[in-house]
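Fold this: DUF38 domain-containing protein
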Amino acid sequence: MWAKVMKKTRQCLKKRKYPPILRSSDPPILRSSDPPILRSSDPPILRSSDPPILRSSDPPILRSSDPPILRSSDPPILRSCDPPILPPLHMTVCPSACPDVLVTKKKYEGNFRLQSGEETTHIVYRKVMNGCYVFINTTANRTKQTLFEGMDYKELLKKDLAVFLRHQKIILKEIWIEGKTADIDQVLNALKAHSENPRARKFPLKTNKLSLRGLAAPQLLLALSSVDTQSLCSLYISSQRRVLTDDITATEQWKNLDTCNISGFRVSDVGRISHVNNFRGCVTIVTAADIVYLKTVFLNSPNFSYCSFIYDSVASISDIATTFGVQPFARRYWFFRKPNDTSRVLHLKVTESDKLVEFGHKYTTDMPNDAEIIG
């Protein structure tokens, strides 16, 4: 009986179609609708929407963090600054916070900085093997760098300075130019080109103060002559030991100075500094007649404040005392009564050890009891 049941069961199983049973070692069976399965050794299959795959021999693709590469035909850097600095320069009325400009040049690098109030734009031009890197740093934004292929950093700085000069119509607080003699020529040539341009004569380069460092006498003359005569009132010069040429002290810009500070250069004629209300500098030769002349001018000038200079040669103390008819107080001081001013006197100090001549004011209440006032 049991044998008949087993036989009938085997016959029923043969008539039905069951799916095969897979072992773990068997390969998978794929249907036609299933996506293909790739082995690790197979090459990748790309869709049309996928990005291309580069080989090691392909040129690199710039990342978003890489600096953009610009051609020499692209617009100057100053036109692309953020925030823009050119539109405010079109103002014809001096704002409450006058901007100041710094231009410096040294080996393989140039700097252009424009500061107005709390806003500062600083541009660095740096020489690299394949061109010039330009770094733009503003108060509002982080440093932005750009590569100019095939561009010379000095030429690019000159081009941007020319753009600035064309747009500048307000009175700057200060222009600062610094660099070695051989490196600063292109900056000065841009100033010269602007001053000689007939279209720019209506809007000359206006600044209240001009600071020049490291320039030779011909470069000083070029820079000084490029600035508007009426706006310039303060001049600062620092350089090597040389004599200021008469061409510099004869300029209209020099004649209109109110304040002058000279370090390194020597003035050959003290008569060229008598109009300056506040002077610090160096001169070559000072005679007793020169001291009398300066004393007379300063006594009659209502705006005179202070004058001191180091000399190469000066008249002796005894010669100066003979000229004034009074021996110096404490072997170095003379005091002169000021017209229409009883509260102050003009003092003169001459020291042979320090090679210094100084004119200034002193209140009569501070005068020594045994000091004699001339006049």
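The chain has a mean pLDDT of 78. The helical segments are 2-15, 153-167, 185-196, 217-225, 246-249, 252-255, 288-299, 317-324.
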